[in-house]
């Protein structure tokens, strides 16, 4: 059911918005700084924590999964409310920051994919026994 998990989602959203507002105030900006991102990160971490300890029911997992998928349109709608033209009028810092973030992200892709492939290849064991079928040269990877 979709209603399950909404309390967890709303707690994360309200906490993230509050922390985003506090970050904005501490930086001297009258805006929410990363509140939705903080909420999304909290939701992912809390749901992972609860799943590992088997504290989240299947219905709650389905509800959280549905509402997590709804975050993408919410983020798009919230970003549409941002005054991008006003940010660019303030100076080139927005463009420089955006380019830097994209370049740094691109640099991390090979590093992360390399570490992932190394850990997954270490766990593969090869079993040469044939499990049914014809007697062909088939290797079963487990």
TrEMBL record:
Alphabetical list of InterPro entries matching this protein: Maln_transptMadL
Coiled coil spans: none
Pfam family of the protein (one): MadL
Transmembrane segments: 29-50, 62-80, 92-112
Keywords of the record: Membrane, Transmembrane, Transmembrane helix
Cellular compartments per GO CC: membrane
NCBIfam families given in the database record: malonate_madL
Protein name: Malonate transporter subunit MadL
Species, as recorded: Metabacillus arenae
Gene: madL
């Amino acid at each position: 059911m979709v209603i399950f998990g909404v309390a967890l989602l709303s707690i994360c959203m309200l906490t993230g918005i509050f922390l985003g507002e506090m970050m904005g105030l501490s930086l001297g900006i009258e805006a929410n700084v990363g509140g939705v991102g903080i909420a999304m990160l909290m939701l992912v971490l809390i749901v992972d924590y609860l799943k590992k300890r088997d504290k989240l029911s299947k219905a709650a997992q389905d509800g959280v999964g549905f509402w997590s998928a709804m975050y993408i349109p919410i983020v798009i709608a919230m970003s549409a409310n941002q005054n991008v033209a006003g940010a660019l009028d303030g100076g080139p810092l927005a463009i420089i920051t955006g380019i830097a973030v994209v370049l740094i992200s691109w640099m991390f892709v090979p590093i992360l994919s390399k570490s992932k492939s190394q850990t997954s290849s270490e766990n593969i064991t090869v079993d040469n026994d044939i499990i049914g079928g014809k007697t062909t040269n088939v290797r079963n990877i487990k």
